[in-house]
Design brief:
Blueprint: E1 6-11, H1 15-26, E2 31-35, H2 42-47, H3 49-66, H4 69-72, H5 84-108, E3 112-115, E4 118-122, E5 125-128, E6 131-140, E7 144-146, E8 161-162, H6 164-167, E9 176-180, H7 184-195, E10 199-203, H8 215-227, E11 231-233, E12 236-244, E13 247-254, E14 261-265, E15 267-270, E16 274-276, E17 309-311, H9 322-336, E18 350-352, E19 357-362, H10 365-371, E20 374-380, H11 385-389, E21 396-402, E22 408-415, H12 418-430, H13 435-439, H14 450-459
Parallel strand pairs: 1-2, 1-6, 2-3, 6-17, 8-15, 9-10, 9-15, 10-11
Antiparallel strand pairs: 4-5, 5-6, 7-16, 12-13, 13-14, 18-19, 19-22, 20-21, 21-22
């Protein structure tokens, strides 16, 4: 009789967890995945990446039609009206199709779905829905949840103060939406509702948007969002939110202190970040302590200090990104199977899916300068033939390389398809490319990606179209 019920038990079926489970099963390990949601896919597929992109895409189409972009192409339309229920329904259809797809993949790969939330009894045993289950290896992949703002109570059902989940399902377009937080989630969801007709005010504690991105990108982001009609209140903190009669009143003041002011809003989106989901796991029962940021520390193989317990994704240090979790899911499964699973955490691309998109990989110019002498090449999208033809002049591509070796240290871009463009940069960097390697690689014409080639050429002062 087997010593354990399973070779591998994954806790959580988000991008990291379900990928880890499928890969482990592919490698011949008897695998189960514990998930308490009614559908698989975690935050990303259910109330995060996927539904937000569905709304971003739909709202972009609506904005193009309403604001006359179609007319510029010789396309005449009649009266444009928003059917919000239909837009939300197509979002739900996208989510349903993808979550059911994961359930199909579980069945195909013989991964057992344990329906319920797991908590540890010991290092090789968890309880799921009242049943004890044992495994030789247990992978913690429980993801993250919204960071609350002290003193502000989120009530998604009421629809006045909401988090990112609530902002995906508002029953009507608010007259005035205030977004607390100028990061990725706040700007993406703020963009959705601005395009659909809401006045949007973004309140950000720092003096620039998009913390963690390159300085030039952050400066340009403010210009672009202001041009699109967003009201940006930077270097500003929220000290309180009061709700009365279906309206909210925010009290704000300068981040460094000063006179207070108030802002009236129909809806407030709290988007100040995310925190690891570790409560209720019973980590104390297995002697697993958290770091100062509430994360689980692992070695480079994703093993914790407790033998047989592993961790990946948002619960460990690093960017809270679905694709980072997916790569870690593959790597941890391969390590458990005795193979060599590696994730290069220096090359994890990040994307903001607004219009235009903002994307980057590697070091910012500021961080690169701290390490030594660098060279920088920059090329504007307004000089790119495809962007110009598509009436998409906003943005640029920036390549940062080591001054001595020419090895690419970072790439940052703002373009309508920046999220797709950044993949080439990430792959080039994974192979240790120099700016010259990119500059002398033939790029198809006319494409947005030619801007990356020109930016690489600009590193040595040789762009053609600028």
């Amino acid at each position: 009789m087997a010593e354990y019920d399973y070779d591998v038990l994954v806790i959580g079926a988000g991008p990291g967890g379900y990928v880890a489970a499928i890969r482990a099963a592919q490698l011949g390990l008897k695998t189960a995945c514990a998930e308490g949601r009614e559908t698989l896919g975690g935050t990303c597929l259910n109330v995060g990446c996927i539904p937000s992109k569905a709304l971003l895409h739909g709202s972009e189409k609506f904005d193009e039609a309403v604001n006359g972009t179609f007319a510029g192409y010789g396309i005449k339309t009649g009266k444009i009206e928003l059917d919000l229920d239909a837009m939300l329904a197509q979002k739900s259809d996208s989510v349903k199709g993808l979550t059911q797809g994961i359930e199909f993949l579980f069945k195909k790969n013989k991964v057992t779905w344990l329906k319920g939330y797991a908590n540890f009894e010991d290092a090789h045993t968890v309880t799921v829905a009242g049943q004890k289950v044992s495994a030789k290896n247990i992978v913690i992949a429980t993801g993250s949840s919204v960071t609350p703002l002290p003193g502000v109570t989120v009530d998604n059902d009421a629809g006045v103060i909401v988090d990112s989940t609530g902002a995906l399902s508002l029953k009507k377009v608010p007259d005035h939406l205030v977004v607390i937080g100028g990061g990725v989630i706040g700007l993406e969801l703020g963009s959705v509702w601005r395009r659909l007709g809401a006045k949007v005010t973004v309140v950000e504690f720092l003096d620039q948007l998009l913390p963690g991105m390159d300085g030039d990108v952050r400066k340009e982001a403010a210009k672009i969002f202001k041009k699109q009609g967003m009201d940006l209140k930077l270097s500003t903190k929220v000290t309180g939110v009061a709700v009365d009669g279906g309206k909210a009143t925010l009290t704000v003041e300068p981040s460094k202190g000063g006179d207070a002011a108030t802002i009236e809003a129909d809806c407030v989106l709290v988007a100040i970040g995310r925190r690891p989901n570790v409560d209720g796991l019973g980590l104390d029962k297995i002697g697993l302590e958290l770091n100062a940021r509430g994360q689980i520390e692992t070695d480079h193989n994703f093993a914790t200090k407790v033998d047989g317990v592993w961790a990946i994704g948002d619960v460990i240090p690093g960017p809270m990104l679905a694709h980072k979790a997916e790569d870690e899911g593959i790597a941890v499964a391969e390590n458990i199977a005795g193979l060599t699973g590696i994730v290069n955490h220096d090359i994890i691309p990040g994307v903001v899916y607004t219009m235009p998109e903002f994307a980057g990989v590697g070091l910012t110019e500021e961080a690169a300068k701290e390490r030594g002498e660098i060279k920088v090449g920059k090329f504007p999208m307004m000089a790119n033939s495809r962007a110009k033809t598509n009436h998409e002049p906003d943005g640029f591509v920036k390549v940062i390389s080591d001054a001595k070796t020419d090895r690419v240290l970072g790439v940052w871009c703002i373009a309508s398809v920046a999220g797709t463009m950044i993949a080439q940069a990430a792959q080039a960097m994974e192979f240790g490319a120099t700016s010259e390697d990119i500059a002398y690689t033939c790029h198809a014409h006319p494409t947005h990606s030619e801007a990356l080639k020109e930016a690489a050429m600009a590193v040595t002062g040789k762009p053609i179209h600028m």
